[in-house]
Amino acid sequence: MEKEKIVIGITHGDINGIGYEVILKALSEPTMLDFFIPVIYGSPKVASFYRKMFDFQTINLNIVNSVEELNPKRINIINVADDEIKVEIGQSTPEAGKAALAALEKATEDLKRGALDAVVTAPINKKNIQSDKFHFPGHTEYLEQNFGTGKPALMLLVNDVMRVAVVTGHIPVNEVPKAITPELIKEKLMVFNSCLKTDFNIIRPRIAVLGLNPHAGDDGVIGNEETNIIIPALKMAEKEGMMCFGPYPADGFFGSGHFSKFDGILAMYHDQGLIPFKTIAMENGVNYTAGLNIIRTSPAHGTAYDLAGKNEASESSFREALFMAIDVYHNRRLNKEISANPLKIEPRTERSNRIE
Fold this sequence. Notes:
Blueprint: E1 6-11, H1 19-27, E2 36-42, H2 44-53, E3 61-64, E4 75-79, H3 94-112, E5 118-121, H4 139-147, E6 154-158, E7 163-166, H5 176-179, H6 182-198, E8 206-210, H7 225-239, E9 243-248, H8 250-255, E10 264-267, H9 270-281, E11 286-290, E12 296-299, H10 316-340
Parallel strand pairs: 1-2, 1-5, 2-4, 3-4, 5-12, 7-10, 8-9, 8-10
Antiparallel strand pairs: 6-7, 6-11, 11-12
Helix pairs in contact: 6-7
């Protein structure tokens, strides 16, 4: 029986970065369309510009007005940008921010009406996208407002080696200590634990929690957030049946390879978790937003203006983001079927069939 092909929306992000390069490189692989139906929310004009620049001769774009017109055997694109849009490679421009927001808004509209099964977002510039319609630090917060479940969304970085989540995301470092509370950490752990079960099919997740201070506070010598905030949060989570351990000093935890013993890692702030993750997994890492009622992934890199237009950007992370969206879709569906009728549990493979 042929496996169901799902519809994945792809937002083009910042048109002056490496977004179109990695999108087109990933979709140019011959068997890619065997797995899903892609629809790019972007600009046929800009896509054609990059197609010619990088000589992607095997790519033919099918321009459609809506998701209802998709061709399942083609790379589809919906025009959301001004026809007079101008590409300025490697530059941050208001025009690029406006085009990035237009793509995100249209994809959000289609997600809300159930026309898409998942969305993969190309990188945006968090400054030039700001407007009266977008006043968020990034995709995570925007999508949480539109698709949140009442619990905080969780930014999660994933690859085959580790899954790293953060308690605080895009906020200044000097605001982190006052932002973390036992209640917030517990909420993030609950979202993380549920995500690992439902989206990654881990029956009994083991989650490591990092300390905030060097050496996890050294019993109060360097700081008391571990004793007063993090440990009470761990005890609260344990009462909810979660397997949480820590707090661990971040440097030794990653440096010793101790991270490999856990299904998930919860860091206290952005760089604490993302620096080690990207050092180990920059090429194939995926940014996944957990805790939403829709599926959203993205590559674990930014606009990379310094690489734009040079044909040097790797599409590996974007490809992995596409496949993770497919995997999570099928994992959620399997989990729903099992929950509806636990007597009808069928064996499954660890990962869905995929090209490497």
